[in-house]
Amino acid sequence: MITSLLIIFVIGYFLITIEHTIQINKSATALITAVICWILIILNSDYKVHVISELEHHLSSISEILFFLLGAMTIVEIIDSHDGFRLITERIKTANKTKLIWLISVITFCLSAVLDNLTSTIVMISILNKLIEDKKVKWFLLGLVIIASNAGGAWSPIGDVTTTMLWIGGQITPMNIIKQTFFASLISMVIPTLIIDYKIKGDILLKAQSLSNDNNPQLSFERNLIFFVGIGCLLFVPVIKTITHLPPYMGMFLCLGIIWAVTEIIHKKKDDDERGNFSVSNALTKIDTPSILFFFGILMAIASLEYVGILPQLAQYLNNQLGNLNILAISIGLLSSVFDNVPLVAALQSMYSLNDYPQDHYFWELLAFTAGTGGSCLIIGSAAGVAVMGMEKIDFFWYLKNISWIALIGFLVGALFFILQHSITS
After folding, report:
1. Closest Cα partner for 295 from 122, 415, 137?
2. How many helices (H) and strands (E) does the chain have?
3. What percent of the residues of the chain are helix, what percent strand, and what percent coil, each to the nearest 5?
């Protein structure tokens, strides 16, 4: 069964990568792959109740991500409908190619550390869609956004789910992980930014921004209010999680409710047609539902591999074959570009106790960095990459050809810096 399951997953994964060639939406392929994998599991199981129980468990954890994504996309769409991102686009609008690229990279890196790599990527997609005219240039910058958001999330205890897992599991502490991984993460962002700056030739053509209604104080007030309430709410999501320990989607839905109420209040005196253009109901019709279904399909397919023990076995195999902690952590990082980094890190957490490697041990810190940044090497290797692939229709092989090697260089140089930093300070 395991062999058949792997064959189905590989075929489905391959069909997703050639979406534009076969003209079948990758969301459909992901959903078919996921369901067939689980059908295969339950048909070959003597304990069908247990399989259904595990399926419901995975559905619960995946739904948390989907609800989080739904809330974040809706909030971003509400800000966008009020033209709120003009406050950012007007300030980073520059004809200087290098300045623009670095602004995008640094803003993404910083946003990801205080939000998370998925939310910051969704925000940057909206901003770049308003800024960049040329499609290929935008794709290069979106590739940089994926790299910068994963790098920014890796050094923050609330910026990436695997770093948060290690924090909650007691393997790392917040201040120490920031101190030990910040510069390695920064390097894994800086190197790709330098390369992409070199690859993009000439000035970047920007979209002409509409200046209509700029003299209307009421519209200007509404735009600014919705922008600051929306961004403030997104920034508050990790705070809610830290204080209450509730899942992140609960904080996101609280924030969605707040901005929903604010829009109802500020538009209550307008006629129905005008009010409808700024409503949450209208925003929900504009979010990219196929990308949410793609998330569900690909994550549920990967969950099937986790259920039959392939991912834990893979982690154990790497541990037995490699032995060296540096090589093991780097290998896990590279594997996270193909498989979900969450079950890979969870497998290592179960394999090693705090007696083997105590809190803030070098291994846990390196694992936090590699698992967080390694996913950038393939567009399907991180939540940020999957969001960009789903929302902007970036081709898998275009990313593989143009961005993957850049992300890999940044990842390896950052890992080497981390290792050298530790050898010098220890």
Report:
1. 122
2. 22, 0
3. 80, 0, 20
Structure tokens at 269: 């005196």
Q: Which residues are registered as beta bridge partners of 206? A: 132
| Phi, psi angle pair for 356, to nearest 5° | -70, -50
Residues 6+ apart with CB under 8 A from 97: 197, 200, 202, 203, 204
Q: What is the DSSP string of 107-161?
A: HHHHHHHHS-HHHHHHHHHHHHHHHB--HHHHHHHHHHHHHHHHHHHHTSTTTSH
Query: The dihedral of CA 80, 83, 88, 89: what is its sign?
Result: positive
Give this prediction's pTM: 0.71
CA distance 345 to 328: 12
Q: Return the structure tokens found at 321.
A: 């074959």
* Closest C-alpha to 363, from 177, 158, 117, 113: 177
| H/E segment holding residue 25 | none
The C-alpha R_g of the chain, in whole angstroms, comes to 22
Q: Along the 426 residues of the chain, how does pLDDT read in single tens digits? A: 888 998 998 898 888 877 767 888 888 998 999 999 999 999 988 888 888 988 998 888 788 878 877 888 888 888 888 878 777 777 776 667 888 899 999 999 988 887 777 778 888 888 888 888 888 889 999 999 999 999 998 888 767 777 777 876 778 887 888 888 999 999 999 999 999 999 888 777 777 665 445 556 667 888 889 989 988 887 787 778 778 888 878 888 999 999 999 999 998 888 877 787 888 888 888 887 887 888 788 878 878 887 888 766 766 777 777 768 888 889 888 988 877 676 667 667 766 777 778 888 888 899 989 988 998 998 888 878 888 887 888 888 899 999 999 999 999 999 999 999 888 876
CA distance 330 to 333: 5
